[in-house]
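Incident log, structure service

09:12 report received: a user says their structure output differs between two submissions of the same chain.
09:20 pulled the input from the user's history:
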Amino acid sequence: MGGDRRRNPLIAIGSMGEVLRGNLLVMIVSSGIWTFGGSLAAPFDTLYYLGLGASYADIGYLTALWSFARIFSLVIGGYLADRIGRRFLVAHLSFAVAIEDLYIALIPDWRYAIPQRIYDGFIGGLREPAFSALIADSTPVSKRALAYAAWQILPPMFGLISPIIAGGLIDLYGIVYMMRIFHFITFLCGTTAFLIRIKYLKETLITASGGMRSRVSVSEILRNVVPPLDHMSKPLKVWLIISFTGTMFGAAAGPYWVDYAVNVIGLSKSSWGVLDSIRRFENMVVSPTFAAMSDVSERFGRLKFIIPSAFISPITNIGFAYSKSWVEVYFWLILSTFLSAASAPASSALFADYMPREYRGRIMASFSLINNIATMFGGLIGGYIYGSVSKRLVFIIPSIVGWINAILILHYFEEPRIKYE
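09:34 re-ran on a clean worker, output below:
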């Protein structure tokens, strides 16, 4: 009977109800509401800034400024997440993030986005380590792959049709006018999420004395910037290198997918919105299917799911770069989403397996810190390459880097002997 249960994906999917409770459920619902509004605007933000007068290089500068501001707050945020607790930072800073969309809805020129990018980077950096640690703390180790699958697919479900709605309305009424409305809707959704989190989130970090530490000196924060690196295993340190290079060149291409599809290949905004929604739906189907095999992941290892995807995924970028029609664009990006969704539950679970709970916030902050340094450089590199060298090249470089990283995964990653709670 036990063996049949492990091999039956339908029964495993049903066990998802075991993880949809407490903080994880609160975060899924609140993030889902926020995602509905954010998914109206996010797929078209690059076109919005271009419509407000930005150049391709300016788009890269905005990305770099955002990452630069996060560099300083992430270290503090990671330490505070392990000292004053996850809930306070996650819940209270949600409104500080939500109000930005109200500002962006009203700006007359792209240059007014510069202070918002700096502000968002700083506030987001303070919040992100606590956000990630809260999710990790709220997932039981025996169901971690399944819990991460729920977290990765359920909030996006709320925004499943948002890009379709947005693309159609933009084609009818114009990019700038509709994006102002979409950002205002996002502000309302974010405020709702803030109220839910304030009321229902529970703290997950308890100190040895049974309480939460609330006073932290600046000198203590500075003394604890480096120690988390000493508690990272060799595979986790290699993961840090992979994360840096992958993030840098991913960020170089990131803002320009929609512009390349719409202004180079020739897709309409509606077509891009439909594609975005298809990929969200695909994620909803593929991730639970592979998460349903979480018992297999626990029994035979996470890497069985991670390594094949790491070697196959890079080809999708090249395929997109050489696409000539919407059919080719759809094929390559849908394939890319499948590979990412198939490996994501195991990848996230393996990442959590490597980290001791007492250092989790600061280790996550270390990754976020290095990734934001990478994003800063990637934004500058991508803006220059896309605007002045070659629009196609900015998508090809991440593929080359992806294959190098796949080789590193194959040689250095290993299944952990101890899986931390």
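09:41 both user submissions now match this output. Likely a transient worker issue. Closing.
09:42 reviewer note: Residues 70 and 121 are 4 Å apart (CA to CA). Residues 360-389 form the longest helix (30 residues).
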